[in-house]
Write a structure and sequence with these properties.
The chain is built from 10 helices and 11 strands. Helices cover about 35% and strands about 25% of the residues. The chain is globular and about 60 Å long. α3 packs across α4 and α3 packs parallel to α6.
């Protein structure tokens, strides 16, 4: 079936609700364009899921939100955070990433102790006080729902943890920097169902303090945990709406066919 990719429905938010906004975002890998005119607004303290078939542009879009495509892709357009275009060449990327953290698809803990995984970046940023570090370690691990499992083994290697525990440690490591926004690229795709459920519970608790934007290939996961959902297709944002509307009453036929499993 042929679809008109100009058929779109993009929700607009009030200015005061916005945590992050992209305007006319176009992303190129060399000559190949991977994203076309991405215009999206993300609400504070909500979970927004990005869904779409493999190669639809959702991970490319997500990674651009804290400049993770730097040196890999050419990102044109504006990414507005607190009124500042963080896609500007004048921006200190490392400073910006303190505010917009990222958790990747596969757990990537450092080959250090659990404690050092969380304190490494903090120390690099000048926090040396041992009591303060211990307090941040405990708070971050509690927020990532890992504290009770590791509190007696903080000096154990992070690599000895299970995959699900490693991923929650990576979440703890990201939130130790106290970001405003947390980007997650398929954070549960490499995990078993029990670990996935724990990650989902963790994310639902985290949205009280953080704005979460998550790429997921799992539509059930998107419908379970997200407030908003964005559907990408062939590098185009086709539909962005409240999750319940996307899954029960999509505005665009292409979205309906994807949700129904007619392709993807």
């Amino acid at each position: 079936m042929e679809y008109n990719l100009k058929d779109k429905y993009i929700l607009q938010l009030n200015e005061k609700e916005k945590a992050l906004e992209t305007r006319d975002l176009n992303i190129f890998y060399g000559e190949k364009q991977a994203l076309f005119d991405g215009n999206l607004q993300f609400e504070r303290y909500k979970i927004t899921s990005l869904i779409g078939a493999s190669g639809s542009g959702k991970s490319t879009f997500l990674r651009s939100l804290n400049r993770m495509n730097e040196g890999v892709a050419d990102v044109k357009g504006s990414i507005l955070y607190r009124g500042i275009d963080i896609n500007s060449p004048k921006i200190n990327v490392y400073e910006m990433r303190k505010y917009i953290g990222m958790v990747f698809q596969r757990p990537n803990p450092f080959s250090k102790s659990i404690y050092e995984n969380i304190t490494f970046a903090l120390k690099e940023n000048g926090i040396k006080d041992k009591e303060k570090l211990a307090e941040i370690v405990e708070t971050s691990l509690k927020q990532a729902a890992l504290w009770d499992e590791v509190k007696d083994d903080l000096n154990k290697s992070a690599l000895a943890l299970s995959g699900g525990q490693q991923q929650r440690l990576c979440i703890a490591r990201a939130i130790a920097m106290k970001p405003d926004i947390l980007l997650l690229d398929e954070p549960a795709s490499a995990l078993d169902p029990i670990s996935t459920a724990k990650i989902e519970e963790t994310l639902l608790e985290l949205k009280e303090k953080y704005t979460l934007i998550i790429v997921t290939h799992n539509m059930q996961q998107a419908s379970r945990i997200s407030d908003y959902t964005v559907f990408f297709h062939l590098g185009n944002v086709i539909e962005y709406n409240k999750t319940k509307n996307i899954f029960t009453n999509p505005k665009i036929k292409l979205t309906e066919d994807y949700i129904s499993g007619n392709f993807g």
